[in-house]
Amino acid sequence: MSGKRVEVLRVEKDFLGEKKIPADVYYGIHTARARENFPITVRLGYRIHPELIRAFAMVKKACALSLMQLEHLDKDKARAIVQVCDELIEGKWHDHVVVDPFQGGAGTSLNMNVNEVIANRASEILGKKVHPLDDVNKMQSTNDTFPTAARIAAISLLRQLTAVVGELQQALEDKEREFAGVLKLGRTEMQDAVPITLGQEFSAYAEAIARDRWRLYKVEERLRQVNLGGTAVGTGLNADLRYIHLVIQRLRDITGLNLAKADNLVDPTQNWDVFVEVHGLLKALAVDLYKISNDLILMSAFKEIRLPPVQAGSSIMPGKVNPVILECVKQVAIRVMSNDVALNMASAHGQLELNALAPLIVHNMLESLEILTNAVEVMIEKCVRGIKADEEMCRMYLERSPALITPLAPYLGYDRAAEIAKEAVTKSKTIREVLLEKGLFSEEELEVLLSPQELVKPGVAGEGKVDRKIVSREYRD
Q: Which residues are catalytic?
């Protein structure tokens, strides 16, 4: 005997013919054909997002309960279907949802896969046949169940993202307060600019993230209108009108979300612009995360801040530590931005009553939500909360910069101030040294004029505190 395991198979058939299916799986012939047709990411390990499977199960449960209440579905079958849906919601049988995320047919392969898993598991529970289409998919279509499940999954992940973005905002505000007294050199176009505090820089980061959090919180309402009950093209063909109204109520109860039936069921069946809108805000968050990460990396390179060391940075240079967390966040941000381009193109592709590329839209949306949430969590825990300021380095850059002449320009005039800045650079001296050498200001005056509290607030530094005439035309104008 070879000892080779003999696979037990069962035979299923559809209008295309027969196919052998492993006897120990809950999916059936429609799923098997989809696996053969779309082996796109098998070796990459891509799977249907678990939140989408859970959301699909919630949709199927709402449908079964509504059909049972209206006596369109046998009670025993309905109860078995509901039991399986609950199991899927709990995370069971997800390994039997095996179709590729990249599939033709506007999500039909996934809907068929879910139908077959529910039907075969329900048949096992009940001891008699539950049909994946006549029972589980009754009064439904891929074209109303898939978009509805996609919106439920997106809302679930969006709430998780909104929560962690709020935590990032708080972490940045904490640093704003911690660094409020750290005076440093501001920079524009990567060149020295006027003074600023490190706290003020972090306050701007916190404000940007606060806008992202608010936008994400508000945009959830755009996802709450669903087209369940619209069946194939939004007209509700083959669906009882009572069912169309009842199924939304059931779905609200199951999900705990304030879902509503779209006023025009044809619209969300045809159009995916809501996903474009929502993902556009994910892109906005990605842009802010990229910019903030880039700034923190630069300030770390200038030694103005110290990032938490999290791992060795080089296989050849001992002791080197790289800003790896922020580099990871930037890569996630780029991925989200690229997802946005693909999602926009797929959404624009919709033709007449359906968008065949809906699986790509949903995959990119859920992926972006997931990886943004994970990246923000890592950014908070392994980077932002552990950032330290190097006040001496910040002060040194400021003192040595010719930009320190700017707050004195109203007293000297632009041209003379520019000459002093040039002399400081040419002679490798500080602005303070040149001013004192020329006797233009006293030590006491410079202590007032160049004090932190004077340099980072509106108005002319030291105005009313030093006995100096303001001569700058720019200031008077």
A: 314
